[in-house]
Design a protein that fits this description.
Elements lengths: L18 H4 L16 H28 L4 E3 L19 H17 L10 H26 L23 H18 L11 H14 L3 H12 L12 H4 L6 E5 L10 H4 L10 E3 L1 H8 L11 E3 L5 E3 L11 E5 H14 L5 H14 L13 H15 L6 H7 L3 H4 L19 H6 L10
Antiparallel strand pairs: 1-3, 2-6, 4-5
Helix pairs in contact: 2-3, 2-4, 3-4, 4-5, 4-6, 5-6, 6-7, 6-11, 7-11, 11-12, 11-13, 12-13
């Protein structure tokens, strides 16, 4: 099949094994014309969407983390908050669209499947997961690149979406919200940490409403997750990344020795089986090692023989380290920010959530003083997000969306004071592939 517009790359659902993710063994090389004809093929196609998410998640994490002040290239450690170009920015642009296209096949075809054994409840589950995954894909796109081309039907040929222009960020967010509403209606309120369900929708909605500054809704949806007994801040901190599907996890991508996550090779030294592509930035390492800031979060790090510090969050050399899409600590920090930022600020409630996260890592609590301001509390939350969620693709987005990019990133690289550089460039290969796709200003 020819290369498609909008960097969709593969119009069909070319599936690879993801059996440990969903306990389903997908069929290989299913044609796009007949991929979804019954209950079995619908679920097989859904496995393919999760597999595509596995395919881009780490690329997006490292793309936005390298753009921040948490991570540097090992061979260029002084180039913190570097200038970005369409040739080097990364972020997984085309791979995200591949996942979206596969979700589109499900959304488009499942309602019309004629199979008496495919119950409405089962259809709702498959459709709800597809809507959730498409929303996640577009949220990862808009946070990284700004408004993007909205593709809501499957690509069945090279010119299917010819002429599709980029939507605005607001239009992209509106589509994400609509997809999440659909997912919330279709999915059940059950705890499953490796498949989308209503709790993962609640958690992603909390993040979504934080990005668009709807604080009342962000607080409401974060509270829905926090209130459930199936989720809690595990202790010690290292439990969440050394144990699969712990109570910390709301939605994670799990891997195994047969379905390997190669992300460890980017972070570990050759002595531990890696390539040492990236390491935590020196200044940030000092914060993680500070008992009053990082506390037990220093367990993310391992000192190498030459004295540098490696990230071991993804460090299982058998490839079985999980990637965390949603976890409960983020929900506490979302609710803290929402409580501090809403029309009638609740600074006591905000600090209670902030201190719950700090207590888990044995970090001293912050006291609410009579002179505390909303801005001071939100700066504390921003810093706590940096320490709590440091290598999960949040830092760059958090600094930009809170309006601190010019001050924080600009102090390191003056070019980042320019708001045009508060999103990443569209990769050059995608621009060259699609004549309807225009580059972000400044790049």
């Amino acid at each position: 099949m020819k290369k498609l517009n909008i960097a969709l790359i593969l119009a069909g659902l070319w599936l690879t094994s993801c059996s440990d993710l969903l306990d389903t063994e997908p069929e290989q090389n299913i044609s796009d014309e007949a991929v979804i004809v019954d209950e079995k093929s619908a679920n097989t196609a859904l496995v393919g969407v999760y597999d595509a998410l596995q395919g881009y998640a780490t690329s997006n994490i490292i793309g936005v983390d390298l753009a921040s002040d948490n991570v540097v290239n090992y061979n260029n450690q002084n180039n913190l908050v570097p200038d970005l170009t369409p040739n080097n920015a990364g972020g997984g642009f085309s791979a995200i669209y591949k996942m979206i296209n596969q979700a589109n096949f499900i959304i488009h075809l499942v309602p019309g499947v004629q199979d008496g054994f495919f119950t409405q409840e089962e259809r709702n589950q498959v459709l709800g997961e597809a809507y959730f995954l498409r929303a996640l894909g577009y949220l990862d796109l808009v946070k990284t690149y700004g408004g993007v081309q909205l593709v809501l039907t499957p690509a069945t040929g090279p010119d299917t979406h010819k002429g599709t222009k980029r939507s605005t960020a607001d239009e992209t967010y509106a589509q994400i919200g609509a997809d999440l509403d659909q997912a919330e209606q279709l999915l059940k309120e059950t705890v499953n940490r490796t498949r989308a369900n209503r709790f993962s929708v609640y958690a992603l909605k909390a993040r979504y409403f934080t990005y668009i500054k709807n604080w009342a809704q962000a607080e409401t949806y974060a509270s829905k997750v926090i209130a459930h007994s199936g989720f809690k801040l595990v202790k010690p901190y290292s439990v969440f990344f050394t144990t699969k599907t712990s109570e910390e996890s709301v939605f994670e991508l799990v891997y195994s020795t047969s379905d390997r996550n190669s992300f460890y090779t980017n972070w570990l030294s050759p002595a531990d089986g890696g390539r040492h592509d990236y390491i935590p930035a020196r200044e940030f390492v000092s914060q993680l090692l500070d008992p009053a800031k990082g506390g037990t979060r220093k367990s993310l790090l391992k000192q190498t023989a030459e004295g540098s510090w490696d990230l071991i969050q993804y460090g299982k050399s058998d490839g079985s380290s999980s990637v965390f899409i949603l976890r409960i600590a983020e929900q506490y920090l979302i609710r803290a920010e929402a409580r501090a930022s809403k029309a009638s600020p609740d600074l006591a409630g905000a600090l209670a959530d902030l201190n719950a996260v700090r207590a888990r890592s044995d970090v001293p609590a912050s006291a609410l003083t009579p002179s505390a301001t909303v801005e001071q509390v939100n700066l504390a939350i921003l810093e706590e997000r940096r320490l709590e969620l440091p290598f999960e693709g949040h830092r760059f987005v958090d600094v930009v969306r809170t309006g601190h990019a010019a001050a924080i990133f600009g102090a390191i690289n003056p070019n980042r004071k320019n708001t045009q550089f508060h999103i990443l460039p569209i990769p050059l290969t995608a621009i060259q592939t699609d004549a309807d796709l225009n580059q972000n200003p400044g790049y």
